[in-house]
Write a structure and sequence with these properties.
By secondary structure, the chain is of the alpha+beta class. The chain is about 40% helix and about 20% strand.
Length: about 160
């Protein structure tokens, strides 16, 4: 079976959920590249770039207030009672992504936010199970076939020290 890339996997997860959600759903990489957007138009690239920037700015501000808190526990909401934007960070293969919803004329924003939070949890579970299912890497002690299989830490330290001794 063909291995799906990240945008294809996002599409498989998010497209079936679009019927029950009255919002624009999107996933963007940390660098502002669009992975998925339920509304593909001239604003798609701008939304991704702006989301990335606003998250990074918010993260920097949170670092001033709570320097030791993990930002992956946070979500970002900028909204009124019926319209706004809602963002969640998540990690996939060691890279950070953002799941977001942009909504307008929403009758029940609490329900929408709950739906988005559940989608984020589902993606976390799916991608975590993929990481767990991957084969373990070879331990560094099993160094067969390496050019320097028996070099010590002291020898490496000497090799890269300024004096070279």
């Amino acid at each position: 079976m063909k291995q799906l890339n990240v945008p294809e996997r996002m599409r498989l997860i998010l497209e079936p959920k679009m019927a029950g959600i009255n919002a624009r759903l999107f996933v963007t990489r940390e660098d502002g590249i669009t992975i998925f957007d339920s509304v593909q138009n001239q604003t798609t690239t701008s939304v991704s770039a702006l989301v990335s920037g606003v998250w990074q700015a918010s993260e920097a501000l949170m670092g001033l207030a709570h320097p030791n808190q993990d930002v992956m526990e946070f979500r970002l909401g900028f909204d009124t009672s019926s319209q706004g934007i809602y963002l969640f960070p998540f990690t996939l293969t060691g890279k950070r992504y953002f799941l977001g919803a942009i909504y307008n004329d929403c009758l029940n924003p609490g329900q929408l936010k709950r739906q988005v939070a559940l989608i984020k949890e589902e993606m976390d579970c799916l991608f975590l199970s993929e990481v767990v299912a991957q084969p373990k890497r070879i331990r560094t002690s099993d160094r067969e076939g390496f050019l320097f299989s028996d070099i010590s830490d002291e020898e490496i330290d000497r090799l890269f020290s300024l004096g070279g001794n």
